[in-house]
Amino acid sequence: MATLTFTAAERRAAYAARRFLGSTLEEKLKLRIPFDVYFQDPPTTPEEAAQAFDTDCLVPWEPGLGDGPTSARFAVVDYDGHTEKMEAPARWDDATDSFVGPDGKRLDRHNTNNPQFRQVNVWAIVQRALEFFETGFALGRRVPWAFEGNRLIVVPQAGPAENAYYDRQSKSLQFYYLGLDDKRFYTSTSTDIVNHEFGHAVLDGIQPYFMESVVPQTAAFHEFMGDLTAILIALRNTDFRQRLLVETRGALRGDTTLSKIAERFGEEVEGKPYLRSAVNKMTMKDVVHDQRPHFMSQVLTGAMFDIIIRLSEYYVKKRGRSAAESFWNTIQRMQGIAIQPLDFLAPIDVTFRDYALAVLRSDEIASPTDPDGYRGMMLDVFIKRGILQDTDRQAFLEPHHVFERLPLDVFHDVSSIASSRADAYRFLDDNRRNLLIPRNADIVVSDLCTAHKLTRQARRLPRQVIVRYLWREDVVLDDVRFGQFAGQLTSMLCGGTLALDENGEVLASTRKPGSEPVGEGEAAVDEQQRGVQRRTAFLDDLARRISAGRIAPPIGSAKGLLAKTLAPLTSRVVDGAIRFELAPHFGIHDDKDEELGGRSWQISS
């Protein structure tokens, strides 16, 4: 078979057109480069070495690849904050389309005993994970970061600690190591952990105001997204699915390799075969009075894993597919089911219920008639977990218009709304009455983007113009239950998300109202009442957080160094008002040992 060769200019031209090419053609045109990365964790025995590496890791090529590795969206900086040592970077070799170490040897499975291989390993994992989120089968658009700049810093060996975390302040993913030199475990070599932390970075990028929330479920949702990212990306791997077929004999029920999050880390730190499991029977009743994000997240993770199981069983039993086909069809559908709804969430205070409703609405857009009954199946799961109620089933299953137009005072063409944040603001301001926005609210357009999403069959969905907006409502903490913050001014975030198609029809509309009047009429009165309830819940959640000793001044540095202890929430003064925010370190470490009422925090949020 002849080898395809072309010039650098021809390769760049093919790269410019890659969105019109299939993955197989991309590989033939060398627009996808194979890299050796650890399948899940590094091997600990000679028997494991043969199956230690992922043979299915192809990373998109781009013209700007450089030493580090460095690419358009990532920069690996191998700095150990404990020893204050900077390792030499892996060097990019254009001639071989590979990274090489200081000795000039290619960094692959035959050359792993050096820091440069760890640099390439973690970079290749996050590059692949970014593509997972940006493809049309998921968000259908570029993922921004929640900080100024376009490159996320990745630190493969940040120092000795039982942790790994994403940190907005230092613009980085920080991976630590534990154990003795000859048996040291680097968290950057665990694919599960890398994907989990990267899930935090993605969610913070597309929904940055989730950080400013005292609602316990919002922090738990962040942990859910980390664990779900690890599960979904693992299931996309061909070798991984084949191993699952052998391990499970075609059935995913029960604890499997797939359901176990961060196995090696769990063994090293907790003395158990994994840190958390997606297989559980927890419901909202089990976490209603809890504040631990990792613990609470298991309800939603368990629900989504239930959907994975039910989908795989449906394909086998109802469609007559083989277990191998079932697994692949399941993950293709789950990518859209789980990731596409993230764009329909309001920009603040997400709850498990918000996400479940967004999942159902997103599926309704992709398949209005639902011939296979997927939405009924998902409703069963969410209701069983207590995330939704039986009344939600009625609302979704009874006949209704799938798409409707907004009643507006002033018409704005969708292309005009999508052209700039200033244009989106004018649209919102001109239609405050219909959108139930208070007249005196100082609206901020927190995000404006256009998404081109696909169904599982690669059919183009309606182009989505997504407008996220918010405002701050002043709140005085005029009660002794607010402890050291009593008498101070803070703010409650209010706002919503609108997703419109190119014809101006509403794909999704979600709101988190404030308590101020929004006009006359039944809808306006109901909206204000919902806002009053939100304000009461906000103050109650804040008081519980304060009484539990879970709020402290901000701790951290631009280097992303860990403090000895870190509160789950922090407080800071901005323009004379207190802002309460989730701690900047979203970590992999479990929070099972947290004691409410004390300060026995882990070194992660």
Notes on the structure:
The termini are far apart. The protein is α+β, with helices and mostly antiparallel strands and 605 residues long. Helices cover 35% and strands 17% of the residues. It has 2 domains: 31-397, no CATH class; 404-547. The radius of gyration is 24 Å and the shape is globular. The relative contact order is 0.09.
Using only CA atoms, what is the Rg?
24 Å
Describe the main β-sheet briefly.
5 strands, mixed
Oligomer: single chain
Counting helices, strands and paired strands, the structural category is: alpha+beta
Global mean pLDDT: 86
Spatial strand arrangement across the major sheet: 5-10-12-11-25
Distance between the termini: 54 Å
How many individual β-strands?
Answer: 25
Number of helices: 17
Number of separate domains: 2
**What proportion strand?**
15-25%
- Unreliable stretches: 261-275, 593-605
Overall geometry: globular
Specify the helix fraction band: 25-40%
List keywords for this structure.
globular, 605 residues, 2 domains, five-stranded mixed sheet, alpha+beta, five-stranded antiparallel sheet, disordered C terminus, 25 strands
List the helices and strands and how they pair.
Elements: H1 8-16, H2 23-28, E1 32-34, E2 37-38, H3 46-49, E3 53-54, E4 58-60, E5 74-76, E6 79-80, E7 85-86, E8 91-93, E9 98-100, H4 115-134, E10 152-155, E11 164-167, E12 172-175, E13 177-178, E14 185-186, H5 191-206, H6 216-235, H7 238-248, E15 260-261, H8 263-269, E16 276-277, H9 293-317, H10 323-339, H11 352-366, H12 374-384, H13 390-397, E17 404-405, H14 414-417, H15 421-430, H16 432-435, E18 444-451, E19 464-476, E20 489-500, E21 505-512, H17 522-547, E22 551-552, E23 569-574, E24 577-582, E25 585-587
Parallel strand pairs: 5-10, 10-12, 22-23
Antiparallel strand pairs: 1-4, 2-3, 6-7, 8-9, 11-12, 11-25, 13-14, 15-16, 17-21, 18-19, 19-20, 20-21, 23-24
